[in-house]
Each structure stands twice: as C-alpha cells, then as structure tokens.
Amino acid sequence: MTRKTVAYVTRFSPRQRVEHLLIMLLFLLLALTGLPQKFFAAPWAQWLILHMGGIDRVHWLHRVCGIIFTLGAVEHLAVLVGGVLVGRSGFSMVPTKKDFRDAIVMLRYYLGTSDERARFDRYDYRQKFEYWGLVFGGTIMIVTGFILYFPALVTSVLPGEFIPAAKVAHSSEGLLAFLIVIIWHIYNAHMSPEVFPFDPSIFTGKVRVERLQHEHPLEYARLVSEGKAPADPHASPETPAPAKPGSEPP
Amino acid sequence: MNQKHARVGWLFALLLVLAVPCARAGPLAPEVEACLECHGNETLELPLPSGESQSLYVDEATFTKSIHGETLRCTDCHTDIEGYPHPERTFQNKREFSLAYYESCKTCHFDQYTKSLDGVHYEYVSKGDSRAPLCVDCHGAHNVAKPNVPKSRISHTCARCHPQVYERYSHSVHGKALLEGENGDVPVCTDCHRSHDIEDPRTTAFRLHSPEICAGCHTNKKIMAKYDLSTNVLQSYLEDFHGVTAAFLKEQRGGGGRLTAVCTDCHGVHDILPVNDPRSSVIKANLVTTCRKCHPEANANFPAAWLSHYEPSFKKAPLVYLVELFYRFFIPFVVLGLVLQILLHVWRAVVSR
Fold first, then answer.
1. Helices B163-171 and B173-181 meet at what angle, rounded to 10?
2. How far is Cα B162 from Cα B177, in angstroms, rounded to an integer?
3. A145, A194, A213, A242: which has the fewest Cβ within 10 Å?
C-alpha cells in the first residue's frame, strides 16, 4: 500500500468561510439586481428585470440584499475591532512596506528578469489588494446606497446634488466591483494555472501543507515553529504531528 | 415618333386633369335638387316620441360649400332612401336618428371608421352612452369641412364636450400660442390624443407611454430650435430614476406597479406653462411643492437632486461631473492593470513550464 497521503492545515475559520459564502451570494444577487438597472436600455436588462418579477420587486430585492450586506460589514468591523481590543486579531491584512517590495519582486519575476519569488506571509499583496478593494468599494456602495435609499433624509442635511452624485458613484463603483470580481477574482480562484479549475480552500477552510509552503512560506514557517503545521509537508498523518488543528487525512 | 407620342400623352393627361374637376363642379346633381324640393323647406321636421323634434331641413348653400357638396349625392349617405315615399323608419329620439346613419361614413372613410372602433369614444358609444360622439358630432353632417382649417378648429370642436379641459388648455403655453397666434407648431388636442383611435388617457398604460407623446415634438430639433428649447429632455428623463422606472414598468404585463413620475406629473397636462413663468409648477420657487405631490417628506434641498434635464457639467453640477469623470478614468485604469497582471502571470507560467 503506497497510498500517497496529503497533509492539510486549517487556514480559514468557520466564521470566515460563512462570511465568504454570504458575500459571494449577496454580491451575485446585488449584481444581478443592480446591473440591469444601470444598463436599463439594453434588451438583456429588460429581460432580466421582467423575469425577476418586475422593477418594483427588483428594487426591493436589491435593497434587502444591501441591508444584509451592510449588517455583514458592520459585524465584520465589530469582530475585527473587538479582536484587536482583546488582542486576538492580528494585523495580517494591514498593507506593509514589504507588500510593495513583494509586488516589485514579483513583477520582475513575471517579466522574467529575475527568478527570485517573493516569500509571502499569511496574505500576499494581491490578497490584500482584493480585501482592501472590497473594504473601500463596499463602504462606497453602502454609503451611496443609503443616500439613494433615503434621499429626503439625506437632503435635509446635504445639498440635493449629493443624490445624483451618489447615483453615479454607486453605479460606477458597482460596475468596477463586478469587473474586478469577474476578471481578477475568478482568475485567481479558478483560472490561474496554480489552482485551475477551482481553489476550494475558502469553502473547506483547509489548504494542502505543500501548497501553503509554496505560496505562503513565511506563514508556514511560523506555523511550524508554533507547532501548528508539520515540519515535513509530506508527513504521513500517522506520524504524530505536532499540529493541533493542522494535518488531517483527506 | 416618340416625341409625338409623348405630346399626345401630355395633352391627354391635361384634358383628364381639367375634366375631373369640371365633372364635379357646377350645379347640384339633379338628385340633390329633387331632394331639396322638400328638404329645402326650413320648417320640415320629424316629431319624435321623446318629444324632441328632428329638423329635416338641409340648407342648400351649406351643403354646396361643404367638402362633400361637389362629390356626394344625398343617397350616397342616406342609403336607405331610394325614392318617395321614403320607407317607414321609427326613431325614439334625436340620438337614435343620428345613430341610424352612424355607419354611412364608413363606405368612403373606412380607415377612420375602423380606427374609431379602437377609440375611447366608440367604447362609450357601444355601451349605449348617448353623450359619446359619433362622426357627425365632431365633423358635422351636411356642413363637413376640413377639420383642421384653421388648426384651432380642432380644439374648438373638442371644447364643445370638454369645456373645462379647453379652458385649462387655452391658458397653457401650447393653447395660448395656438389660440392667440394660430401657431402651427403647438399641439392641439388630437396631436396628443389622436383623432379617431383616441386612447383612454386615465389608464396606467397611457401614463407610462405619455413621455413618447411629448417627445414627439420635444426631441424635434427643428421645432425646438425656434423656441430655444432643449431636445435632450427625453434622454435626460429616461436616464434618471423616474424614467428608468417608467421604462421598466412599461414592459411589465398590465403596466402595473407603483407609480413613477412622467412629464405631465411635474409640468402639468393641459395647463403646462413655460418653465420660466412664475406660476410654472417646475420653476425653482414652486418645484418643492411639485415634488411633494409624490414625496411628501421632500425638503428645500430635495428638488436639486434632479438636475432639471441638464447634463452634469463642471458648471451645472460639479460634484456629479467630477464623480463621473473620476470613474471614466478609474475603471479602465484598474481593469487594464488587472488584465495586464493576469497576462504576465499566465505568460510566466507558460514560460516556466
């Protein structure tokens, strides 16, 4: 029996996995109900709205999804701030000077002028870019969304011009987010040669130790030193791994 | 040879052109003269069971001057009558008398007749509403003339049954221009409501497609240039909240759904005033009152949320303009950057293999 065993490390907590699933679902629904409103003149937009039960229902659905998205964002922020206060959350998502250096190193690598690859910690610069894109984009969408939801309330304190400006921002930012997701995120999670056809780790929470070592060597080294990952990525699960949440048989 | 033939052809054509009106003009057809021997009598009347009395008098001069005077004989319309004595007919009242001849016009004016069957007037005629007009009520009977000469004649015709609407219209920007100056550009009743296939204007479907009616003239560059009016009014409406919703609602079956503002909700219907008239519903001082018709919570700042059909520009709406400008560059910048990064990534992966 020479069954090859693969060791795994738990990389995402159940809360993070549920969060991703929820954002994914809400993003799809918001795009589905929002984009046809932006491209109202296109036949496909008319078709979509009609088949979703008419513009009034689409308005309603879009707003409900927006409210849930907002609640999710508030929860995310609260957990984050709470975690920092208690000292449990790290600052692994905070962009550092190293990220800029890494980006340059990787650019050289991609251009073929160097064979050196940047050594990443828990999140690489692309993941941070996407996270902060979501944070900033999400904030713009939430703020402008509520301006559009309650125009009379908003104009009781702000000039009326904020309403059409919010409309332009909401619709443009929404399109940008959609393009980033279908181009960048889908590439990184599905089409990229490293993960093709599908990177399941955000759904299962687990990542192969070998892959972690390759893609996030600094994080891997730290996990090993903390005893949370096997020192040998090919370690058989029978060997008493020092890891606690870590290596499990597939 | 050919030239000779051509000359003969021209001569023939000329004779034909001269001959046709000659045959029509001139004295009354003998048949008409025969009818007028009795019907030229002013006192000829038919007492009806309802107590009304239907005059059977036809003024020769009126009929001769009418558009049909030269072309039709009495029995062309009164097809039930062939000679004297006339066949016995019983009418309860004057309306029944008119209704009996309702279909006479159809023989020649089949188009208009069939169109009128789709109209709201016929809908009421068919329900037995005696107030709903028949052909003759608008066009006259023996005195039929061109209905739109002069143009204001149309509005005066409708005013006979719709006096309140006419009153409001006559004070509107359209009505004034028509009635005071016979302006040929402004709409009369039938330009918006059509003449024979008049649609019930109280339905949601009518409301939702009414912007197209206004746009018929208000997107016409030639007409609007004369009055220094923008032709961008429809597009700017369609691109904003109200217009987008209206466009979607229009596509929905039954045209139901919540209401959204169309042109007339802000500008008025028959009482539309110039946008710079101090009494106009859309002049700045009155705009918030107009918004409150649908948005009771609207405050003084609220109307500015609507850019008054203007394209956002640095002068008119700087905030909107700048946000628009930012994204016009930012979206392609980000997207191109990401695509470039992906291409590099793929390229390196292929090369390294």
1. 90
2. 20
3. A194
Q: Where are the alpha helices (DSSP H) in chain A?
A: 14-38, 43-51, 55-86, 97-111, 125-149, 151-155, 162-180, 186, 201-204, 209-215, 217-225
H helices within B162-203, ranges in order?
A: 163-171, 173-181, 189-193
Task: Say which residue the tokens 């409301």 belong to.
Answer: B207
- Say what the pTM is: 0.81
* A contacts of B352 (beta carbons < 8 Å): none
Q: Find residue B46's DSSP bridge partners.
A: B54
**Nearest-angstrom CA–CA distance, B35 and B25:** 19
Contact list in A for residue B341 (CB cut-off 8 A) is 110
Closest among A151, A145, A181, A137 to A65, alpha carbons compared: A145
Which residues, in sequence order, are bridge partners of residue A207? Answer: A9
Instruction: State the Cα–Cα distance between residues B5 and B11, nearest whole angstrom.
Output: 10
Report B:287-326 residues touching A (Cβ under 8 A). Answer: 295, 297-299, 301-307, 312, 317, 319-320, 323-324
Given the cut 0.95, state whether the ipTM is greater than it: no
d(CA B134, CA B125): 8
Cα radius of gyration rounded to whole Å, chain B:
31
* Alpha carbons B243 and B249: distance in angstroms, whole number: 10
Look up the CATH superfamily of A8-225: Transmembrane di-heme cytochromes, Chain C (1.20.950.20)
